[in-house]
Design brief:
The chain has 323 residues and is α/β, with parallel strands linked by helices. It contains 10 helices and 13 strands. It has helices at residues 11-23, 40-48, 67-71, 94-112, 149-168, 190-199, 219-231, 250-261, 285-291, 299-322; strands spanning 2-6, 27-32, 55-59, 74-79, 120-126, 172-177, 180-181, 204-207, 213-215, 217-218, 238-242, 247-249, 267-270. It starts with a strand and ends with a helix. The protein binds nicotinamide-adenine-dinucleotide.
Amino acid sequence: MKVVITGAAGFIGSNLASTLLKRGDVDVVGIDSLTDYYPVDNKLRNLDGLQDDRFDFVDADLATVDLGPILEGASAIFHQAGQPGVRKSWGDEFAVYTTQNVLVTQRLLEAARNLDSLEAFVYASSSSVYGDAESYPTSESDRPMPMSPYGVTKLAAEHLATLYAKNFGLPTVSLRYFTVYGPGQRPDMAFNKFLRAAINDQPIPVYGDGTQIREFTHVADIVEANIRAWKRRPQPGSVINLSGGSSVTVNEVLETIAGITGKTLNVQRLEKVAGDVFRTGGSTLLASDLLGWKPSIDIETGLRSEYEWLLGLETAERQSTNV
Ligand SMILES: NC(=O)c1ccc[n+]([C@@H]2O[C@H](COP(=O)([O-])OP(=O)(O)OC[C@H]3O[C@@H](n4cnc5c(N)ncnc54)[C@H](O)[C@@H]3O)[C@@H](O)[C@H]2O)c1
């Protein structure tokens, strides 16, 4: 059985590929153009961890590559590729977001439309579609009102997925991820920055006063939900929240990091950034109903897993520069 993972060199895509390969019952085709949104070395390191006879990597841009031969015979497409990040999506960069998030998704949906082998097209959507939501925990039927251009592109692509399900019966499932963390997390994301700064005794940059509330979801839980979205065959066009189960403030996260690292943190407060919402938090009732999924990793255990991963990387780096 063959599955295709777009964005396979990225944070979530590489974790998903790794889990699927460990199962040993699928051939995984990973595709990624190694964009420079963050250092390409991080992506090459992710790919290094995927060496396996059952893994094929295609270095290509989804906006232009001939998708037919790549998707041929696929049972599932896990569409994780995209241009992430709320802050950079303003201004001239918006064109990159519309290409990587909207156009690429439309190309994939179009190419997947006549694939007889396809059981699931799983799209990595985002809690950013909600913006400052009407209520908490936010449910899938609440009106999406993105607060950032990034959120607008993620919502547009989600609507495309639902359209292809309604019009052509494509088995799409959009999973709205609430801030994902854990081993492999992108270097531009808060926990990664906080933990690296703590390990290296550097100042920790925090946007706003730290009272903002987030629901964080461990990448292992996100991976599990992706696999369930394929295996459980929810109604085509489904849109499902994946949120981590515990709402915490950024200040509480910092306290937990101080506890895990045993360090006194040097927190540096920065201006709140346009597009950042005050709170995210989602209902997981639908995920439980349709996928039998609920988050299994609490914030302290999850942060510890990311800390240990980063500590390993930092130690290896120090050793290689001392040689
Ligand atoms: N990390 C989170 O907290 C989070 C939250 C909500 C939604 N998401 C979504 O999940 C997906 C994965 O996020 P991530 O954090 O792993 O990001 P990531 O940047 O680590 O991974 C995305 C990968 O897609 C690749 N890519 C981008 N455009 C491409 C193109 N045109 N052709 C081929 N490859 C391309 C990039 O090179 C990158 O490796 C994204 O779609 C993101 O919007 C992530």
